[in-house]
Amino acid sequence: MTLDDAHPSPAEPRRSSGIDRLEAMRLLGSVSFGRIVFTQHALPTIRPVNHVLVDGDIVIRTHAGAALTSQAQQARDPGVVVAYEADAIDPDTHLGWSVMVTGYAQLVTDPHELVRYQGLLRPWVERTMDYAVRIRPDLVTGLRLVAA
Question: Could you tell me the maximum CA-CA distance found in the chain, to the nearest angstrom?
Fold first, then answer.
């Protein structure tokens, strides 16, 4: 079996078009799963996480031993630089969208906010997630993949 046999390519070519910030944030809010990108030991690191949008910010939950938790605890204002990506691309047609956000991540320290986020966002891994990280979007871009 070849790679082409395992994943047949769609018959029609694709075209990409940009998505404005408002639409990109709306799309981001329509899914609960994404990937956070941060630096660990001077190298890029990517982790799959679930998220919720709250007041225009991306919120994820994390745990005490996580590299991102440690970096966010040590960061000064405005926070640690991260990227966040989420998408909805059909595996058969290869049509859909992708949103990329670059911004600053900060550990949520207000106990009332933390309780609120714990109620809004349930971890999908079996691990105690006592921390929350808020990402304030700075640069928001997106693209839509459509049939040409």
Answer: 55
